[in-house]
């Protein structure tokens, strides 16, 4: 089965789909037009589907057998102005597909078209996960809660992400942990207001907050092994109304990033202990809220090796880059990886010769569209072989 040839045959259709989605970006849980376009495509191909997670879609291709492979693509864009000058730049002011989700959706539609055309040769079923809101709260979690991994039961899940730092025609993939977990947090520190000239009559929450910001870094530098990455970032500090007034309250917000489950639990606990200890010792009071956001993304060894094997047969072994370091960024595919053996990899979309090298989440981000049929072929080949 020559999946690369089959994908190249529909390249112009893929490019047309991708450009259409790119021109009309939609934010998380607002992907109504995108969802409508996906459903129209699936209807034309005769592929059954259900609606899930508000604007998400789960398609199903029934082959021969009980085994089922899930393939995921995210759909949402970012609240960012598109500063590219090209025929397919965003037509929606302040919104842009700056992370390649338009390409991911297009690739999964290409996969759907090809695998549905050979469904009589599939040794099982294919589920197509079109996920909304990846950039915000993660539609994957809602999709899973609504049962997309059941009826029929999904055995494995694969996913990809375009990457401009990797040249088109290549992929990057890592064994084990791929992305960090995240825990956003808010700390509200309460003191006692006073005149700035008489600090002894008040309890200064600004000073307390300053101490908390500094000492929290000790958790990373002195309590987590230096061989294991972890991050505590303070992103905002708000408090006060004038230069000569000690305010009554200061609010700090930030995020925790860790790569191990045990470190995630440890850092959350220590953040509370350290903050309460400092605040209490300086006569203040505090309220701490730590959110449970994306978990770590883990690549299953067996599934990852299959991706490598299939990709090598399509684009040659020398174009497979085995990544050694995980990313401290987060990825909602992690929710699937926590539920089923999974593999997630990076599809090269950069091309310096064409000037396509701007990073994701930037206003000039673009892809070399030659990556589209390559992504389709690798996903098709991997799913086909996993069903065996």
Automatic annotation (TrEMBL):
Record carries keyword Metal-binding: yes
Span of domain Peptidase M20 dimerisation: 185-274
InterPro entries (UniProt xref): Amidohydrolase, Bact_exopeptidase_dim_dom, Peptidase_M20, Peptidase_M20_dimer
Cofactor descriptive note: The Mn(2+) ion enhances activity.
Top-level taxon of the source organism: Bacteria
One Gene Ontology term from the biological process aspect of the record: diaminopimelate biosynthetic process
Record keywords: Hydrolase, Manganese, Metal-binding
Protein name (database record): Amidohydrolase
Organism of this sequence: Clostridium fermenticellae
